[in-house]
Design brief:
Elements (H helix, E strand, L loop, with lengths): L1 H21 L3 H26 L3 H31 L12 H7 L3 H12 L10
Length: about 130
């Protein structure tokens, strides 16, 4: 069962790499990379854990899989938000874009102040005291 899971996981990782090369949009590439590669890596680690006999090795693989599942979605969310807010990188949203509607109501100074607050930087800008 372990080698089969490793084969399925490596196939998903291969499909993620193909998706990164073939998809035209940054956000679509990021989606393919984070979803398929995370699942693929977890399946490979689970397959490795099923074939090992040492409890210490199995625990290490399961911990690595858990950390991957915890950190990859958060990192992808932060990178996609930064990509969306960057004006130089073209991104296309197919559905209702609620963030664009929200940002249209905010002028540029308020948007920059909001981004600084999101990053944890506290300071004043021109016009804001």
């Amino acid at each position: 069962m372990g080698p089969f899971l490793a084969l399925v996981g490596s196939s998903l990782t291969l499909f993620a790499a193909i998706g990164v090369v073939r998809f035209p949009d940054v956000l679509a590439r990021m989606h393919a990379l984070t979803k398929a590669s995370t699942t693929g890596l977890v399946l490979v680690l689970l397959g490795g854990a099923l074939t090992l006999t040492n409890v210490n090795d199995i625990t290490s693989l399961l911990l690595a899989g858990a950390l991957q599942m915890l950190t990859m979605p958060v990192g992808a969310n932060l990178m996609s938000r930064a990509t969306y807010l960057a004006s130089e990188i073209p991104s296309h949203v197919d559905t209702i874009d609620e963030l664009a509607e929200r940002l249209d109501g905010i002028d540029e100074d308020e948007r920059l102040a909001q981004e600084r607050d999101d990053r944890g930087e506290h300071g004043t800008t021109a016009g804001h005291v």
